[in-house]
TrEMBL record:
Single GO molecular function: zinc ion binding
InterPro entries, per database record: Znf_GRF
Protein name: GRF-type domain-containing protein
Pfam families attached to this UniProt entry: Zn_ribbon_GRF
Keywords of the record: Metal-binding, Signal, Zinc, Zinc-finger
GRF-type domain residues: 26-66
Superkingdom, natural source: Eukaryota
Signal peptide location: 1-28
Keyword field contains Methyltransferase: no
Length: 92
């Protein structure tokens, strides 16, 4: 069980790293490297999107990285978040 949780945790981290790497190849309308933001609210859980790194600029660049997730994915992600939280408790 311990080993299984570790596998899930590293899968999740590697997925985040892939998202970060992908974001470096996208430029917004004002020529800046976009940032990937993830919505963790219950209605848009796990929705990743590109946006302009300049907060409040008129650039308005917005691109969805993934379509909104289905209910099943949300359940899986909530489980992953709980796993990560438990690791954080162990570490610090
Ligand atoms: Zn911009």
């Amino acid at each position: 069980m311990e080993n299984q949780q570790r596998k899930v945790f590293f899968f999740f981290v590697s997925h985040l790293l892939l998202l970060l790497r992908a974001s470096k190849m996208v430029l917004c309308f004002c020529g800046n490297v976009v940032v990937v933001r993830t919505s963790w609210t219950s209605q848009n859980l796990g929705c990743c999107f590109y946006s302009c790194p300049k907060m409040g600029s008129k650039c308005g660049f917005l691109g969805w990285l993934e379509p909104p997730m289905c209910q099943r994915s949300i359940v899986i992600i909530l489980g992953l978040l709980r796993t990560i939280n438990s690791y954080e408790v162990e570490v610090g």
